[in-house]
Amino acid sequence: MAEAERPERIYLGPHDLLAGRTLLPITVGGHQLLLVQDGERIVAAERACPHEGADLGLGRCVGGRLHCPRHLASFDLCDGSVSPGWSFCALRLFEIESASDGLWLRT
User: Fold this and answer.
1) What distance in Å separates the CA atoms of residue 17 and residue 12, rounded to the nearest whole number?
2) If we measure between CA atoms, which residue out of 105, 91, 102, 98 comes closest to residue 45?
């Protein structure tokens, strides 16, 4: 799809989509993502760890960081940066917009 044809945002579902869960794997536009509830904030992240592809949906979220279940590296949910001691690329994050009609992924 050409850049000009991409929507600015994609509807994900109602406000209670996570229904009390911290992590929710989703597929959007053929991409495997992970919705992460961190307090009142919801962020979308790529689901595969950039290190070796571990499923971050099996990890946990604590104190604004998403922890990989395989290597115990963690990612800052503000900018995707990896914890000290690791030297691989940051986790790709996507903004979630909470609108009157539900949750939207900003593209």
Assistant:
1) 8
2) 91
Domain ranges of the chain: 3-106
Give the DSSP letter string of 12-68: EE-TTTTTT-SEEEEEETTEEEEEEEETTEEEEEESB-TTT--BGGGSEEETTEEEP
Q: Does residue 24 have a pLDDT over 90?
A: yes
Q: Say if CB 8 and CB 107 are below 8 A apart.
A: yes
Residue 60: predicted pLDDT:
95
CB 56 within 8 A of CB 68: yes
Query: Architecture of 3-106 per CATH?
Result: 3-layer Sandwich (2.102)
Entry pTM: 0.87
